[in-house]
Amino acid sequence: MSTRLKELVESLGGQLIGDADTQVSGIAPLSDATASQITFLSNPKFRPQVAQTQAAAIILSAADDAVVGADYHGARIVAANPYAYFAKAAQFFAARNAIPVVPGIHPAATVDPGAHVAASAHIGPNVVIEDGAVIGEKARIEAGCVIGRGVKIGSDSCLYPNVTVYAACEIGARVIIHSGVVIGADGFGFANEGGTWVKIPQTGRVLIGDDVEIGANTTIDRGALADTVIEEGVKLDNQIQIAHNCHIGAHTAIAACAGIAGSARIGKYCSIGGAAMIHGHITIVDHVHVSAGTLALRSISEPGQYTGFYPIAKHGDWEKSAALVRNLNGMREKIRALEKSVKQLTEKDNE
Amino acid sequence: MSTRLKELVESLGGQLIGDADTQVSGIAPLSDATASQITFLSNPKFRPQVAQTQAAAIILSAADDAVVGADYHGARIVAANPYAYFAKAAQFFAARNAIPVVPGIHPAATVDPGAHVAASAHIGPNVVIEDGAVIGEKARIEAGCVIGRGVKIGSDSCLYPNVTVYAACEIGARVIIHSGVVIGADGFGFANEGGTWVKIPQTGRVLIGDDVEIGANTTIDRGALADTVIEEGVKLDNQIQIAHNCHIGAHTAIAACAGIAGSARIGKYCSIGGAAMIHGHITIVDHVHVSAGTLALRSISEPGQYTGFYPIAKHGDWEKSAALVRNLNGMREKIRALEKSVKQLTEKDNE
Amino acid sequence: MSTRLKELVESLGGQLIGDADTQVSGIAPLSDATASQITFLSNPKFRPQVAQTQAAAIILSAADDAVVGADYHGARIVAANPYAYFAKAAQFFAARNAIPVVPGIHPAATVDPGAHVAASAHIGPNVVIEDGAVIGEKARIEAGCVIGRGVKIGSDSCLYPNVTVYAACEIGARVIIHSGVVIGADGFGFANEGGTWVKIPQTGRVLIGDDVEIGANTTIDRGALADTVIEEGVKLDNQIQIAHNCHIGAHTAIAACAGIAGSARIGKYCSIGGAAMIHGHITIVDHVHVSAGTLALRSISEPGQYTGFYPIAKHGDWEKSAALVRNLNGMREKIRALEKSVKQLTEKDNE
């Protein structure tokens, strides 16, 4: 299904230069786009590709347009943020090509009579919805999801197959949850008594704001007494663990395999790199960026980027450097001894 | 539903000071408790909050009671281990508020005629129980779980939705398994033949003792020839990987995102921090504590705490220190050269 | 069910020395094998056990046979690669003991009329197969799996329970996918616009070659515009994350808990250790081995083994070495000052 550029610009804004009736059927990078597609330039280093691309149209910034706009054969959309414009254009095409979601409850679903499912919602086969759960308008709960007692799921949210939401958790509107996600399992809370562990019942909930996305097989535990909170606009990648009583500030993005330990508090507009680990009970202010593979052991009170991982090397070189790291104290002692000797020599020399 | 303090003390022990008819309906921290709740003091640093708390009653140690007991307006329960007492009191309230589990097999479950399910067990919708499986008294198998051939699940165990247990694995009594857990998938075993991999069938089982808890999306692989063993009382957090032929000693606790490689043997009463990684084929004795983010490459034969992760820093500082770590050998060479020069100077000086 | 050695050798090759009618019913290590089993010697360090083993037969190399063959009481199979021979013999016994898979679609499965399922395939209870999906001959899709629109699954592939495959992904022949795996969830792609995130629709697919194995709870994201590709013979352990647009070369093995960030390209015949993390957009050539717990930040253009993790130590020793690592720059400054002083002293001395 193809679209005229003017429809795109009417919907998404931007300044159109060239033929507004140009038809485009999809979006692709500069090097791959065909003559029926639109492309985008979001990084000046790709400017030289603009003259060569086959694309029928291009999205680019005013700064890039001033340099390479004239070299380009097709229509241009000048946008303040070409990468965000690309994302929205891709959404525009995806929406056009999407198979419509059919409202209704599949006969192989098990919905408790005490649950409330909006008439416009889609409930797939083998979904289980327990007593007191509320599923919002146009929500889409795919095959095999299990929605516990009293759970609330906001309108237009989408749960892909085999998601589990434990009792009493609340999920906002337009939330996307990928397969294998577990929301609201018990936090890891035990009291030690003579070496054995006594379970502390986890009676808090998980509260998830609007416009959150949660990647496949990520887990978010319910709070111990208070709640675990994920604010609006947070984006979580796959296989992330968020422990009980964490609080993740709005619009923070966390990459895959990261772990956030219990009661950690992460600010708004932060980013946490892949496999980074945030210690329990620490606070990270807004606008902090923790690099991949980094363990944040203490609170971070100043915005900025923080890093800590061992540099990779050829195995033999690593062995040497690791042995020296273990023996840094020995190295320091040698420096101290040298300082002492040099001081004595200097004093003698000056006598 | 509220409870008199005397009922609590009859059930859990402790020395009651004050009005035994005081009614409490739940438990909360010192700062949050309302006048209808009981609270607890498990850390002396919170003593100053005791005089201010709204709570109708407090659990505390004899030592704390001697200092702050007199300042407190309500009833006191003096306990040897106030934190463990809190956990048990919370269990007491949770049990009172729990929705009773209904025995029986949901009509949307698929139970093989060759399986044995105790009459008091609860089998949820879309559960699949294969031939020869045995489900114990009052066990609770929630929606979407798949229980393979010949699996044994002990009495009072609870499997939350969407757990998978492969054939022949055995799970003890009072075990709690959270959603997304996979027990008994094949271990990662291959023989290399000219660059390609030949699969080694994994014919061992997973054996899980009594009173184990397993967090969401954790995976425990079956043994190659022998079994993978998780002893009684072990507590596993979310997203942990336990490889084939591991042996985890009783009452060991492992935090989220940790990985235990094949044939590793971890002792009793150990703790493994979040995202720690235990190498294959190593042995760790009882009472070892491995810190978060630490890779244990060799066996540990002495109790104690072990740590190894790169300290976090501002990104620019990390870049400098990482460059120096790579070049530690250069630093050592410089120290050696200095030592030589200083020795020569000293010898000359003494001539 | 027992087998004569001559059947084994007819099927798997190797040179048989001794009684070809020797019956064996299974395979076990040297120390555990009973008189009705066959054993194997794949590492010369176990040669001393050969004379003692109870096993009725042994698989070993010509080199080992020359040394210990004469000491052994039973029949011997001399093989070029005894460990690979063991793997194949174990497969031989496993196939004999396997419960046959019954072809057909379970009545509790939900198969769209627009899907094509081979008559010899097995579709378990609560499986959902959507419109346009194609399931190959003798494929086995176990309980609770969800197969999206247009997915292709090759012949003889096996999906264990509760696997999710998103729309349009393609899986080759003889692929094994363990429980909890999610194939084709959206990659983590967002454009930032004024601090909030705009989702980039993920319209690529996941393409998985023949003879791949994927461990429990591993996730492989679909590509953003192009596809994510896992070539033939790749072996993935549990809880691995493979991000959008990655390309994993044939016969590469990746251990548990590893993470491969977006658009990373890993060569053929590589191995990636447990919990290793591969940065996005980097290229690793064939025959590279990345050690466990290592973060590969830059492309690797030379075969070999690469390592980078902080050495573990007693906690107090680690604290000292970590403090020194943070202060390496101070140490370098001291060395420079010493070099300067020593130079001055030496010059004075030579005056």
Task: Describe the protein's topology.
The structure is a homotrimer of 351-residue chains.
Chain A: E1 3-4, H1 5-12, E2 15-17, E3 23-24, E4 38-40, E5 57-60, H2 62-68, E6 75-78, H3 82-97, E7 104-105, E8 110-111, E9 116-117, E10 122-123, E11 128-129, E12 134-135, E13 140-141, E14 146-147, E15 152-153, E16 158-159, E17 164-165, E18 170-171, E19 176-177, E20 182-185, E21 190-193, E22 196-199, E23 206-208, E24 213-214, E25 219-221, E26 228-230, E27 235-236, E28 241-242, E29 247-248, E30 253-254, E31 259-260, E32 265-266, E33 271-272, E34 277-278, E35 283-284, E36 288-290, E37 295-296, E38 304-307, E39 313-314, H4 315-326, H5 328-350
Parallel strand pairs in A: 4-5, 5-6, 7-10, 8-11, 9-12, 10-13, 11-14, 12-15, 13-16, 14-17, 15-18, 16-19, 17-20, 18-23, 19-24, 20-25, 23-26, 24-27, 25-28, 26-29, 27-30, 28-31, 29-32, 30-33, 31-34, 32-35, 33-36, 34-37, 36-38
Antiparallel strand pairs in A: 1-3, 2-6, 21-22
Active site (chains A, B, C): 244 (proton acceptor)
GO biological process, one term (chains A, B, C): lipid A biosynthetic process
InterPro entries (chains A, B, C): GMPPB_C, Hexapep, Hexapep_transf_CS, LpxD, Trimer_LpxA-like_sf, UDP_GlcNAc_AcTrfase_non-rep
